[in-house]
Description:
Nucleotidyltransferase, domain 5, 5-stranded mixed sheet, 2 domains
Amino acid sequence: MEILGIDIGGSGIKGAPVDIETGQLSQPRHRIPTPQPATPEAVVDVVDQIVKHFDWHDAIGCTFPARIKRGIARTAANVDKSWLGTNVENLIETKTGCASVVLNDADAAGVAEMAFGAGRDRDDLVLLLTFGTGIGSALFNDRMLVPNTEMGHVQMHNVPAEHYAADSARKKNNLKWEEWAGRVQEYLEYIEFLLAPDLIILGGGISKSNKKAKYFDQLRTDADLVTAQLQNDAGIIGAAYRARQLLVKSLG
Length: 252
């Protein structure tokens, strides 16, 4: 069974059909730069272009960089403010004619890692943290997603933690990898105090092996600590897998 997964990001929108039994992309990804400004109409036009590229007429799953509740965008920290209150699912379904499921981008990455990646054998409390422009989070208890967590927005040093410890903070402040690892360590200790997870998965661009070697051995946690396995495909895979789960449920 295949479902089209689409990952809506700040710089690019990419998609591919996913074999949701194996978690493999069944065709090469197709990527289009995110329009600027990234208004609802402009972004949905790009989603429709990707749907047409694959000549797709069935269900699709989409990630979105905001808190999504019942298909509606409830936050707009890193997207155009005109998205606030927009029913993203209805907008995509109307434009593409495809039944659609939309979820937070970090939640989608977590769904993929739990199904096919670093969390596939775990049924305890698992936390995925994605480090990039911000810090995204996805929390799973007994393999069930607790949606829309925002652990990148907890306060550290009087600012949101992502302003202090995201990969963008490393670049903005020209931090050495050792210095940045110290900030991440401080952040992880705080998160462990709040949640006491059994497994922490570090995702985003920092999970690539060439970057992992620069910081990972400097981190210490009570939880098992690993890097994500699916990397740039996680959003696409997780969105498609979640669409299958929810669509099957809605059909009884």
